[in-house]
Amino acid sequence: MRSAFLKERFRRTGSPVRTLKVCLFFALACSCSASHAQVLKGYHHTAWTIENGRSAVWAVQQAPNGFLWLTTPTGVFRFDGLRFESTDEVTNRQVHNADIVTVFLSSSGGVWLTTRTRGLLLWKDNRVTNYPDPRCVPAAEDGIVEDREGALWIAASSGLFRLKNGNCEQIHNDPAFPGGFPLAILMDRAGTLWVKWPTGALYFMKFGESKFKHWPLGEDAGGEYAFLKQAPDGSIWLSDASGLRRVTGYSDPTKPIAGSERMRKPQSWFGNFTFAPNGALWASSGQAVYRFERVEQYKVNEPLSTADAEAFTVNQGLSSSIAVELLIDKEGNVWIGTTAGLDQLRRSVFSTVAMPTTTDHQFAIAAGDDGSVWVGNREQPLTHIRKDGHVQVFAKTRQCIAIRRAFDGSIWSSGAGDAHLWRTTGGDPSPVAFPPGDIRSAADIAVDRNHELWITTFTPDSYHRVGTTWTKVTDALGGSPASLAPWREIPTATYSSHFQTS
């Protein structure tokens, strides 16, 4: 399988160098099992695959204006969440999509495009500028970074290059500086450039300096792929054949760390990865996409294990087990580029609540505190379901026809138990005196901003409660009430809620 994947990548790029970034994903499929991870929950999934006219997505970047730019086997496309536009369309035919291999988005708003025949192109302010020097062509989709002065640092097939003021220069920094093409480059938020080489060496150069320095951590026997990313806390993380791990400290990643020798322990292998703003780490492998909630528990040079992660797999809808790119957008959505298309994971607005089992599928419902919910129906007493799934049933209410949460957080409910009307303020429900002479349950409940209670009953009649005194207001509200209709005439009221399950 690995050889088949290599052939596909070579066919697309025409360069064996570019195959090295993801050539081990099929091997990872055999070495990184999703069976030890928990199932990812709480996310809504959408996929764009061949049915939507998409094929593999090798890289995903987000522009300052929110657009996504996708690198695919058939060129580069811009995506707004609904429509895919080729570079032909975006540039008004100034650039032909069939000639585009990769894209890099500059902080200045420019779009750098790697071509098959013309070197680098810069599309900015609706103009295209050509930088034809073939040496400054990245060898992989993530082979360009930008420094604080706007210069590009490029991991090319013949080494490390810098494109500044239109001049392409190769970096010959030191006789001991490794040759060949860099496996990974990263420009951190302090302006320090990090470079990982096939020999296994990791080097860095601070902003304003002219010499690279060797970094002792993260150095192994070498390999065919590597990914470098910076966490929100400032630390530098590395994914390569020795696992995914933190290789620096926090506030100053370039400061040496004492007692940080390589930890020899069983590990899981990953490919690309990224961080969410809250510090959660998302990583891909040949089996699944993983989410790690708390990576700060890992020591320096301690590889991550899938046993500590949640997994999203093809069984849950992932378009392919081979995920090669991960991006967290400005809204916190997770975008996944796979060999079969583009996937999006976004936090679910709704979560599943285990409802009591009854033959009556029409429930009254009201929101509680801290993500909890209050429910009930003609067969189910007033029930409180907490966010963690804990269920508390108040049997003495016997049934629950209507529920209303007041502005002060108290819960009002009606039914035909020991009392027709109940008020809950944090403990057990307390009975509330019902309008005299009307023995039918309340069909609807509302509480106005003065904390005064309004109800309609199955008589049918409407009542208003001030203090402990009830007043019949059916005629004042225009006759016999119908469901929530009376309360629409009371601008200070809130309304009872009902829903039906299928």
Please provide a brief summary of the model.
The protein has 502 residues and is mainly β. It is 5% helix and 36% strand.
Explain what this protein looks like in three dimensions:
The protein is mainly beta and 502 residues long. The strands form ten sheets. A five-stranded mixed sheet has the order 1-25-24-23-22, with no helix packed on it. Strands 32-31-30-29-41 form a five-stranded antiparallel sheet, with no helix packed on it.
Beta-strand residue fraction: 35-45%
Number of helices: 3
What is the overall pLDDT average? 84
How far the N terminus sits from the C terminus, by CA atoms, comes to: 45 Å
What proportion of the residues is helical, as a percent range? under 10%
Q: Helix- and strand-based class?
A: mainly beta
Taking strands numbered 1, 2, ... along the chain, how are they ordered across the largest sheet? 1-25-24-23-22
Low confidence ranges: 1-31, 482-502
- The Cα radius of gyration reads 31 Å
User: How can the largest sheet be summarized?
Assistant: 5 strands, mixed
